[in-house]
Structure formats: structure tokens, C-alpha cells
Amino acid sequence: MPFAQSGELRTRYELTGDQGQVLVFSNSLGADFSMWDPQMAELAKRFRILRYDTRGHGQSSVTAGDYTIEQLGRDVLGLLDTLKLERMHFCGLSMGGVIGMWLGVHAPHRLHRLVLCNTAARIGTNEMWNTRIAIARKDGMKPIAVSVIERWFTPEFRAASPDRVAQAQRMLETTSPAGYSACCAALRDVNLRDAVAHIKIPTLIIYGAKDPVTPAADAEFLADRIQGSAKVELNAAHLSNVEQADAFTEAAGNFLSQ
């Protein structure tokens, strides 16, 4: 698997395909780029797909200190520059969606279209994030993973697809506690509720009807403020691209192909 080096950051990535526009996938907090496996077979027929592990996650560097969403957004731009890719479609889920909002505000010239999935302009509270950080630093990722899995997937999906749920739990458990905590700080400290009104590129908002993390009200907020945006509801909790993989892939693919 290739890596890109930019200063202190070593980013693991995968660039698939040699035709079509570039589509960048950006992961949820606690995930590596394998979370997008359900979308690969179909969307790789139409796009060059760039997947990467966010700073602090997967096999990318766990650099010191708290991170910021601006830093994570600039990591994406740096990866594009390293790979000599000028413009992209961008699809981000949860934290990846927040990174996408930052790019939509600050780097619209690098974007064709934007897909914001199971995300919000402001996720959670300072107290929630500080508690999460304290647990990860003290006890590691196993107790975090147990509680997160219940929010990532509905009870029905957890009962029907135990193998996929177990795979997601292993992904969470093997995430670096330091990298996870640093990204929690980025989400704690960012508030894009005013800034998202400046997003002018075509945008699709995908949300889960049963998502306890970023519920429908968060999607409505984004849809109201991002002029001309469209939205799609899926019967899923937070990781809608896994729980409703086919419907997610169809919605995103149709929008990006316009």
C-alpha cells in the first residue's frame, strides 16, 4: 500500500482506476479507509477513487498534539498536490463530512461536487468530547468501541450482520488512542454552522433516519443553509454507507455522475 510524505505526516492512501474524475472518500472518526469497501466495486467503474487514512488513524502518522479540522482539510489538499491531482469529488462521512464542509468553504476551486454523509456543522458538545478523550487516554479504545458500535448501526443490522459489525468493531479497537483523541479535539473545537452558508458547489446530504449521532435535524440544517443542496434519507444509523450500502452507493453515484 503506498504512502505519501508531507512534512511530519505520512499518509497511507489507495488510488484506484485510471479513468473518470477523481472521487476522494474521507472516513468517520475511528475508521480507516476500508470503511468504504462497500462502495468500491460499483463506483470504481465510473471514477478514479482516492481513499486515505486520516491523520491519527489506520496506518497514517499519529502526530503529536490536538488536531484541527483545518489541519485535516489541508492534509487532503496536500495529498492531492503530492499526487498531482487538481480537482476532485469529495465524499465524507461524519468527521469526513466536516472535513468536506471545510474544503467546500475554503477550497471550492479544488472541488467538483460534495457529498456530506451522516454529519453536522457542529457535532456533540465540549463535555461529550472531553469525556471521550479522557476514556480513550485512560482505558484505550475497547470501551470506546463498545459504545460507538451501538451508535454506528441499528439493533436490526447488528443482529442480521454480525460479521460486518465485528469487522467495524475491530477497526475501532485497533485505532490509535492518541490519534483518536487528537481528532476528537478537532471535532470538539470546530463549529461551521455559520460558515456552511458559503458553500456554493453542488452538494448532496445523505443522512440516516435512525442516526443518534447526527440526526435528521442536522441534515435539515445543512440543507437549509447550503444553497441548492439535495438530501437523501436512508434507513440506517450512523454508518449508512455500510448499513444501507446499495442505496448509499446509488444515491452518491447518481449525484456525482450528473
In total, how many beta strands?
Answer: 8
Please give the largest β-sheet: 8 strands, mixed
Order of helices and strands: EEEHEHEHEHHHHHEHEHH
Alpha plus pi helix count: 11
Tell me, what's the shape?
globular
CATH class: Alpha Beta
Q: What is the total domain count?
A: 1
Q: Gap between N and C termini, in Å?
A: 31 Å
CATH architecture type:
3-Layer(aba) Sandwich
* CATH topology assignment: Rossmann fold
Structural descriptors:
258 residues; alpha/beta; Rossmann fold; eight-stranded mixed sheet; 18% strand; globular
Describe the structure.
The model has no long low-confidence stretch (mean pLDDT 97). Helices cover 45% and strands 18% of the residues. It is globular, with a radius of gyration of 17 Å. Helix 1 packs across helix 11. The chain has an eight-stranded mixed sheet, sandwiched between helices. 45% of the residues are buried. It starts with a strand and ends with a helix. It has a single domain, classed as Rossmann fold, CATH 3.40.50.1820. It has 258 residues and is of the alpha/beta class. The chain has eleven helices and eight strands. A hairpin with a 2-residue loop joins strand 1 and strand 2.
What's the layout of helices and strands?
Blueprint: E1 3-6, E2 9-16, E3 22-26, H1 37-43, E4 48-52, H2 69-82, E5 88-93, H3 95-106, E6 111-117, H4 126-139, H5 142-152, H6 155-160, H7 162-173, H8 177-189, E7 203-208, H9 216-225, E8 230-234, H10 240-243, H11 245-256
Parallel strand pairs: 3-4, 3-5, 5-6, 6-7, 7-8
Antiparallel strand pairs: 1-2, 2-4
